[in-house]
Specification:
The chain contains 42 helices and 23 strands. It is an alpha/beta fold. Strands 1, 2, 3, 4, 5, 6, 7, 8 and 9 form a 9-stranded mixed β-sheet that branches. Strands 10-15-12-11-14-13 form a 6-stranded mixed β-sheet. It has a 5-stranded mixed beta barrel with strand order 19-20-21-23-22.
């Protein structure tokens, strides 16, 4: 008898099993198993299961564990696909279950989908306790052949079920054969504790909880053949029945051909004719006349698109991009290689003219290497969902789904989850979190850390933590929606992929991105981009305040103020250009045209960034541009002789070796993979082509060597140009409309305290007035008032949008001259301490011309006044007769006031406390921002607040520390070596104000301070 495993629940089933395929398949092979069946509760992981087992020579069988609704019972059945029809029905069943509230399968649905399927009724499962009767089985087998239905009996660990005799009797009465069952949820007996932990993580209880449910799966390991034979020794025919069932199942899961959707067209109209009509209309709107170059390129692209069968796809993308633009949803100018398509430009899918920028269509679609087109579209992230819903509504919810993604138990996640169910103390959790390294596997981290190993050995519970975490690491923990992926098909998706309920009533695939693509489904990326939302906010504010309509495509690309900003590296808030390294690159290159902007974008990445100084010298005339191979000058002139773009590599192959563009794209792909055999084959191909064009062997080899050298450095020019447009537009507004830029940027940073502090500091340095939040003037987000930015109420910790809506409605009732007026308008229900205290502390009630201490003391009086006035019809008379008075509140010193601002806003608004401290000292104190211009070793004194401290021990065991110091101008990293640390460690506390003496040092091109002395400061600056 062949060894077969009929019910394996894998780790793909979200901790219902912890079987890992890379351990399962070799073990099955080692034991000589001929087949194994997956029976997860959804069709999660079936394609990976099938591929992995096939690779190891084991026949995979696809099944599903289903809770079947029969009359008033919900019973467990295993359903197996015998053939392709059965697998299709299995997908429909899994989809039906996963899109129902109850997550079970009604009997009539099973009967509708059971063709090509075999069913085993898991009679020894507890779900059958009240359903082990002939009537239920007759209902289940009604109108179908009894040959496709079996009774399942399991004997985990060899023990017979208490009702086994009754089940055997029922088998005879119903004339249904018995099959041996055994669920495998983990591989080895010793894995049970880890499985128990997984169950506790999934269900959310702790293992030491006396009320936790019993775990019935202690024997759910993968038994050896002899164990299975022993367990069923009295009934070997049951094992034979199981073998017969599994031998009857044969489903091959393989990569499919493309399954492209159809765009609805009027009868008698060809999609390609419609596409050409739309393209010509789009180009006509952009250009007065179409030159021969554009005409030729358009005809060529349309021919290739039709030839490859992608006409409908372009019409679909155009449709939802047009919808987004019509609805005022900001769409990105393009991304990736699709910006190289004139058709995409003509349809308004991209805003980049590929001919103007020398972009190549074949980098996007290659007729000699047929792959799915990949037009990824960016939308303002706060409105992306609207576009997804439009596609679902337009093409039908059955035809559209978002793609699932699985969150896994990574190194730190698995450690924390296991620690929680084992009820670790906060101190234990803190210790192990600090010691674990996210960049390594849990097992590898333990192996390398003696401190962790010693800590684990102290008590058995920690050893269990280690063992369970190692077993569970990398298993899927939860399912969520992929940030971008959407699939669309010509037929209902359930024919190709199992579905489940998603968000916003759009279905979700049960298979992740790679599996969905292998089915042949067209995947489209709808990406939400925060920087488009930022541009959208700027546009909306300018339109609201100035009544100007902004057309981003009309923004001039030669604005000098914008290039001045780039040259200075003044790029806080500018997409892709914010990092210190990128700012240095900008200051080095001194860009003065858009070409330089996208060149810097492509250069600033590992590898090519080493050419930034060379690019700068040549661009700025400090060094001549030299071409070792003169024939490359026409291709490399725009980048001063340096290969930066993949498109340049392709053009070299065309011009030097006579390649077609399609062949050149294949060459680019092949070289990037660094396969030595392929590299040599391509060398022969390249040099042979170059010699035909009159180049000698040496020069041909030199050009090929150059291509190979730069293949890793090459970046898609199409992507660099398209994304740099977003960067340029943001920089344009920062340079020309700074108040609108900063108001929108600050609004996007709500909740990011450190970043807001940096931006506020930058605004103050530029002299841009920042007005405090105001209950009479502020909106929820930050706004522009004149030449100043007014902080929004949403920036105040504790102020919810719901409260703001109540406040905004109350403001419409009339102007307020006092906090009492505000309390009456808001009503006593909404004017509460919890809501009002943060507003007062943040300065939002300063318009009432009272001290904040008085306002805080008067909250009760204002609340009582609002209660007294209420909604009475005579309220006007009451208000006239009652003249409430503020309650004396004593004094509030400046430091307390600033502390309240920092607590509620996350930054100091009126002034930084260090400014007050500096006013009270006679010492020569340097601002932190000025230190960058000083020489190495210069002695300085600074004042600031200690933001963070990191204490370490050297290899000699000596204590030292690193701290971050902040003043009103900037922050700096400070190093305290062991000798100084022993003397000043007592003064080192987070949040403490200190005066530091030290010397300037440069490390990794950043300035830091080597600390010699630290003096504590009290609030009076002494």
């Amino acid at each position: 008898m062949n060894l077969m495993y009929p019910q394996i629940i894998t780790g793909a089933d979200l901790l219902r099993g912890i079987v890992k395929l890379d351990e399962l398949a070799p073990l099955l092979q080692k034991r000589g198993a001929s087949s194994a069946a997956i029976v997860n509760s959804k069709l999660y992981g079936v394609r990976s299961f099938s591929k992995m087992l096939t690779k190891y020579g084991i026949r995979p069988i696809i099944g599903l564990s289903v809770m079947l609704e029969v009359e008033d019972h919900e019973v467990l059945v295993y359903i197996y696909a015998q053939n392709e029809i059965g697998f299709s029905n299995l997908m429909k069943m899994s989809s039906a279950i996963s899109t129902r509230q109850e997550e079970n399968l009604p009997l009539n649905w099973l009967q509708a989908y059971r063709e090509g399927c075999i069913i085993i009724c898991a009679m020894t499962d507890s779900s059958w306790a009240n359903a082990r009767n002939l009537h239920v089985l007759q209902n289940l087998t009604e109108n179908v052949s009894s040959a496709s239905t079996f009774i399942g009996i399991s004997r985990p660990g060899g023990g017979a079920h208490t009702d086994e005799e009754a089940i055997i009797q029922l088998s005879e009465e119903s004339q249904l054969s018995i099959a041996a069952c055994h669920e495998t949820r983990f591989l080895h007996k010793e894995d049970f504790p880890a499985y128990e932990v997984a169950t506790a993580i999934r269900k959310g209880y702790k293992l030491n909880d006396s009320k936790k449910p019993p775990n019935r799966y202690r024997q759910a390991f993968l038994p050896e053949q002899q164990e299975l034979s022993n367990w069923f020794q009295e009934y070997p025919e049951w094992l034979q029945t199981t073998e017969h069932i599994m031998n009857s199942c044969d489903v091959a899961i393989q990569k499919e051909d493309f399954l492209l959707p159809k765009f609805p067209v009027v009868e008698g109209t060809l999609p390609i004719d419609l596409l050409e009509e739309h393209c010509r209309l789009g180009l006509q709107q952009r250009f007065q006349t179409l030159s021969s170059e554009y005409e030729e390129r358009l005809r060529y692209e349309l021919m290739i698109i039709e030839q490859m069968g992608f006409t409908d796809y372009f019409l679909i993308v155009e449709d939802y991009v047009r919808y987004a633009k019509t609805e005022g949803i900001l769409v990105g100018p393009g991304r990736g290689s699709s910006a190289g398509s004139l058709v995409a430009f003509a349809l308004g899918i991209t805003e980049v003219d590929p001919i103007k920028y020398g972009l190549l269509f074949e980098r996007f679609l290659n007729p000699e290497r047929v792959t799915m087109p990949d037009i990824d579209i960016d939308f303002a992230d706060h409105r992306r969902t609207e576009v997804v819903n439009y596609v679902a509504d337009t093409y039908g919810k059955q035809y559209v789904a978002q793609i699932i993604t699985f969150g896994t138990l990574s190194t730190k996640a698995v450690a924390r989850n296991v620690a929680r169910v084992l009820d670790f103390t906060p101190e234990e959790v803190r210790f192990m979190s600090n010691e674990l390294n996210s960049g390594q596997s849990f097992k590898e981290t333990i192996r390398q850390s003696k401190k962790l190993r010693d800590w684990i050995q102290v008590e058995p519970r920690r050893e269990m933590w280690q063992q369970a975490a190692e077993r569970l690491e990398d298993l899927p923990r939860n399912a969520s929606t992929h940030a971008a992926g959407v699939v669309l098909a010509a037929k209902p998706l359930v024919h190709y992929v199992p579905l489940q309920m998603g968000s916003d009533e759009v279905f979700l695939t049960q298979w992740a991105m790679k599996d969905v693509e292998e089915v042949g489904l067209l995947k489209m990326d709808f990406l939400g981009l925060r920087n488009l939302t930022l541009l959208d906010r700027i546009r909306a504010m300018i339109q609201y305040n100035k009544k100007q309509i902004i057309d981003f495509e009309q923004i001039p690309l030669h604005d000098q103020a914008t290039y001045t900003l780039f040259k200075a590296g003044d790029t806080t808030g500018i997409f892709q250009f914010e990092s210190p390294g990128m700012r240095r690159a900008l200051r080095t290159i001194q860009p003065d045209n858009f070409k330089d902007i996208y060149s810097v974008n492509a250069l600033y990445r590992p590898g090519p960034m080493e050419f930034i100084p060379l690019y700068s010298r040549r661009k700025n005339g400090h060094e001549p541009t030299v071409y070792d191979i003169p024939e490359l000058e026409p291709i490399l002139a725009e980048t001063y002789g340096i290969i930066i773009y993949q498109e340049q590599i392709m053009k070299i192959a065309v011009d030097i070796a006579g390649f077609t563009m399609a062949e050149a794209d294949l060459l680019r792909r092949a070289i990037s993979k660094k396969n030595q055999q392929v590299l040599e084959e391509e060398r022969q191909h390249f040099t042979a082509g170059a010699r035909k064009k009159g180049f000698d062997q040496v020069k041909a080899n030199n050009v090929y060597n150059l291509i190979v050298k730069f293949a890793d450095y090459g970046f898609p020019k199409s992507h660099a140009v398209a994304y740099s447009l977003i960067s340029y537009r943001l920089a344009f507004f920062k340079a020309n409309e700074p108040t609108y830029f900063y108001a929108a940027f600050l609004s996007s940073l709500t909740g990011s305290k450190d970043k807001m502090t940096e931006v506020i500091r930058e605004m103050k340095a530029k002299g841009i007035p920042i007005l405090p939040p105001s209950v009479t003037k502020s909106r929820y987000s930050h706004t522009v008032e004149g030449h100043a930015v007014r902080l929004g109420l949403g920036a105040i910790k504790g102020v919810t949008f719901a409260f703001y809506q109540q406040l905004a409605t109350a403001r419409e009732k009339g102007s307020w001259s006092s906090m009492f007026d505000m309390a009456i308008s808001l009503g006593a229900d909404h004017f509460t301490e919890k809501a009002i205290i943060p507003l007062i502390k943040a300065g939002a009630l300063d318009d009432f011309k009272q001290k904040r201490s008085v306002l805080l003391a008067s909250i009760d009086a204002a609340h009582s006044h609002a209660l007294f006035i209420g909604d009475d019809a005579l309220s006007d008379q009451f208000q006239f007769n009652s003249q409430p008075k503020y309650t004396p509140g004593g004094t509030m010193d400046q430091m307390t006031k600033l502390g309240f601002e920092h607590d509620t806003l996350g930054f100091y608004l009126s002034e930084h406390p260090v400014e007050q401290l500096k006013r009270n000292t006679s010492s020569q104190i340097a601002t932190i921002s000025s230190l960058i211009s000083l020489q190495q070793g210069t002695k300085v004194q600074c004042m600031g607040i200690i933001l963070s401290i990191r204490r370490i021990r050297t290899k000699k065991g000596e204590a030292m520390a690193f701290l971050t110091l902040q003043d009103e101008t900037d922050e700096i990293s400070c190093t305290i070596f062991p000798k100084q640390y022993t003397q000043i460690s007592v003064h080192l506390k987070e949040g403490a104000f200190v005066q530091i003496s030290g010397s300037i040092d440069f490390r990794n091109q950043s300035v830091q301070l080597i600390v010699e002395q630290v003096l504590p400061l009290n609030l009076s600056g002494e």
